[in-house]
Design brief:
Elements (H helix, E strand, L loop, with lengths): L2 E3 L12 E7 L4 E8 L1 H7 L6 H18 L8 E7 L5 E9 L2 E8 L1 H4 L8 H5 L3 E8 L4 E8 L5 H13 L3 E10 L2 E11 L4 E2 L2 E2 L7 H10 L4 H5 L5 H9 L4 E9 L1 E2 L5 H8 L4 H7 L5 E6 L4 E6 L1
Parallel strand pairs: 1-13, 6-14
Antiparallel strand pairs: 2-3, 2-13, 3-10, 4-5, 4-7, 5-6, 7-8, 9-10, 11-12, 15-16
Length: 304
């Protein structure tokens, strides 16, 4: 029987607007599981998105949380950006920083009406690319990986990113329940991170490693209703999947919030970086610069 460290499999408050980390040490695997509720509703309600775009943005927010919560340093941020010139969706961007989550999408709504109820990822983005940016403020470094926006979903595109840019075997599962007034999105990410070597081949680039095969096979059995069930604690979900492992280590649960960081002070600082002649062109007749925040759909009047 497996031992689950730092968590029990029953009781307590259900996991909603939370992300939980876990590790299966004997298998050299780590993972994250997340479930979004009110935070998701708050982010989506900032714009009048069509339902199709709400579902896509919900998936992107889950993916951003799963990846962003892997960061350890104070102030570190992960940004997920899907972009295509000439696409129906021109830009979809989300970021995660210390439990704060935000996101928005720019699209051509008239063209969206021409592609039917279940358009492919390619038809929405017309190709394009997926960029994942890590801003490691804690150590003063920034790096980015870019891959083609391919596959049947954003989740598949992120798996491709990890395979090509990070060379880390990764499995991702996401689920969205878009009921009016009760939207829930959940997801799980698991990775094989063995850092030893066999001969001249690093273990962590082997997609067919037996330890990874076993763990990923079990992860594939997680059901959409389990990922979106607000009555099911995140620890209990992991226990259901991996109760036959000798030990599953569960980290602390991180609470999630809508994290738009816009403020007058923030935009004043941003505008101060522009040359005075550029700021002059931005002013209206009253000497005010109007700044829109795309994330929260608020407008700020900055006196320059």
């Amino acid at each position: 029987m497996a031992a689950m460290e730092n968590a029990s499999a029953s009781g307590g408050k259900p996991g909603i607007d939370e992300v939980l980390g876990f590790a299966i040490a004997d298998r050299d695997c780590r993972g994250r599981v997340v479930r979004l509720g009110p935070v998701l509703e708050t982010i989506l309600s900032a714009h009048q998105y069509p339902e199709l775009i709400k579902a896509l943005l919900a998936e992107a927010l889950v993916l951003t949380t799963l990846m962003g919560s892997l960061l350890k340093g104070e102030g570190d941020q992960l940004t997920l950006q899907a972009q295509a010139e000439g696409g129906i969706i021109r830009l979809l961007v989300c970021d995660y920083r210390e439990g704060e989550l935000r996101g928005y999408a720019q699209l051509d709504e008239e063209r969206l009406e021409t592609v039917g109820e279940t358009p492919s990822l390619h038809s929405l983005f017309s190709g394009g690319y997926l960029a994942v940016t890590f801003d490691l403020t804690s150590i003063g470094q920034r790096y980015q990986g870019i891959v083609p926006l391919e596959g049947s979903s954003l989740s598949e595109a992120v798996e491709t990113y990890f395979a090509r840019s990070e060379q880390v075997p990764t499995l991702i599962r996401t689920a969205i329940r878009m009921e009016e007034g009760d939207r829930v999105a959940g997801g799980m990410l698991i990775q094989h991170l063995a850092d030893g070597e066999e001969g001249r081949e690093r273990l962590h680039v082997r997609q067919d490693h037996p330890e990874w095969n076993d763990v990923s096979l079990i992860a594939r059995t997680v059901r959409p209703d389990e990922l979106t069930d607000k009555s099911l604690r995140l620890e209990a979900l992991i226990w259901r999947l991996y109760n036959e492992e000798r030990e599953v280590r569960v980290g602390g649960v991180a609470n999630l919030t809508r994290g738009c960081r816009c403020s007058e002070r923030h935009f004043e600082d941003v505008l101060a970086r522009f040359p005075s002649e550029d700021r002059r062109d931005m002013r209206d007749e009253k000497g005010v610069i109007l700044v829109d925040c795309a994330f929260c759909s608020r407008q700020f009047a900055i006196q320059d």
